[in-house]
Amino acid sequence: MEKIIRPESTSASTSAAPRMSQDFSLEIPTRFEMWIRGSLLPHLEVPHAEVPQAASGFLMMPHLLS
């Protein structure tokens, strides 16, 4: 019984995680970059070229978001 349950639970968790990360990476960057440009750029005066790098670098660290 345990040998049957474990593969199902692990496969379910691993198959669900990539979907969440894909939706996350597709939906967040546009809103996140818009938020950066709208609220942070006027105050920090960061060049527009550095904004996508900062956003992508932040998204590469999911532990900060959760």
Cα distance spanning the termini: 34 Å
How would you spell out the order of helices and strands?
Answer: HHH
Strand content: under 5%
Class based on secondary structure composition and strand pairing: mainly alpha
Low-confidence stretches: none
Tally of individual helices: 3
In helices, the fraction of residues equals: over 70%
Can you summarize the main beta sheet? none
Mean pLDDT: 56
Number of strands: 0
- Rounded to an integer, what's the Rg over CA atoms? 18 Å
Query: What coarse outline follows from CA principal-axis ratios?
Result: rod-shaped
Compose a concise summary of this entry:
With 66 residues, the protein is mostly helical.
Descriptive report:
The structure is a single chain. The two termini are 34 Å apart. The protein has helices spanning 2-44, 50-59, 62-65. The radius of gyration is 18 Å and the shape is rod-shaped. The chain has one domain (2-65). Helix 1 (2-44) packs antiparallel against helix 2 (50-59). It is an all-alpha fold and 66 residues long. Helix content is 86%, strand content 0%.
Throw out a few tags for this protein:
single chain; about 70 residues; mainly alpha
Q: Can you lay out the helices and strands and say which pair or pack?
A:
Elements: H1 2-44, H2 50-59, H3 62-65
Helix pairs in contact: 1-2
